Each structure stands twice: as C-alpha cells, then as structure tokens.
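Q: What would this chain look like folded?
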Amino acid sequence: MEEEKRPETEKEEAKTETEKTQPAQAEVKKESTKETEVLKVFVIPLKKAYRKARDKRAAYAIRLIRDFIARHMKIDKGKIKIGRHLNEKVWERSAQKPPRRVKVTVTKHGDEYRAELFGFKYEEVKVSEVEEKGLAEKLASRLGAKAIKKQAEEKAVS
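A: My prediction, written as structure tokens:
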C-alpha cells in the first residue's frame, strides 16, 4: 500500500544520500572569506554569573564567555577578542543583570579568535577617552547657567 518516494533526478538522489550520511550540524559553520573564517556558533550559558555579587555579574559573564570559548575551541584565553555587539548585549541591563545565555559566532582572523553576537559582523570595542575637566569646569557644570551668570557679575563688580 505504501509507495516509496523515488528521486526523479540524480541531484535529488545525491542530496538524499548526503542527508542520510551526515548528521544535522546546526552549530558548525564553515565559510571562508579573504582573511576570516567562521568556525562555530555557540549558545553560551551565563547562569553562573548570578552566583557572584550583584555589581560584578556582567564582568564575570564576559570572563565566562572567554572561558567557554577557550575550553571548547582548545585555545588560549589571551587569543580571544570580544566584539562590540556582544559586549553591549552583556552590559545592556547594567552590571547587575546580564543575560542568562548568549548566542555567539566565533571567527578566526589570523592568529586571534573573535567572538561576536550571532547575526552581527565583528566590530572592535571602542573605548572612549574621557576628557579631564578642571575643578572650575566641574563646579560650573554642577551649578548651572544662573549660578555662572551670578559669578560673572560678581567678578565684574569687584
């Protein structure tokens, strides 16, 4: 009663044979471009970050990401770079509430491994430089416009 489905072309036949021999690999991706190569996609659990003190959870979550990638890729922690989008995702809800899990793409660029949030291209974390203000400028920013005018008038009178 049941009829077997037979592939009509050779391409369909080859396709079904490869599906039978190769298991479905959702996590492993290999695409090569000029210098970078997508190696793997990981879903990294960050539950352990909630064991730490509230103010140290996001920093510990970043450490957990590095440890996880180093352990599963069998590489040194020093060779792992965290991307901007991944860093922002971890710190998004402040240091106290990092996400419970994160989906990460790991690529190899030269001899360093780059981890970025799944679906984004790697961008380096840009650390903004803070300009140092003098004491007078700090006080002026706290006082406001009216107080600055009043001080200017006092200087003009004396």
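The radius of gyration is 27 Å.
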